[in-house]
Amino acid sequence: MATTLDQLEQNVDELFAAQSGISVQDVDIERERAYERAMEVDSKLGQMCNVLENVVGELNAAQERVWSMSRRQDGYDEDKDVGKIIRVFNSNNETLAQLEAKARNLEADVTMVSQVLAKTGH
How confident is the model at residue 18 (pLDDT cuts 50, 70, 90)? Predict the structure, then answer.
């Protein structure tokens, strides 16, 4: 088994030596960088997911407050409730715009990682 592993290592070293002067260490470094970048992207996506869950929760709570207030009041002012709803929608729109910008940044990061992986032959 040790002989087979030694032979495989030698074959891998020969393959890397044949690839335009790229050493095994260079490839390992690039692979590690790509992995770290992928982990950063994963972390950012997780954070965005948490933010989005919080936003949805806040929206649902705000909607419930608006509906429960309007149900409790006999002669409530409909324009007042509509104004609140519009403010909530505007806030949600701003949040979604921010999330969209962050998603575009993440997409650029993923593209960069893909390009690095493609250059290293993975």
Answer: low
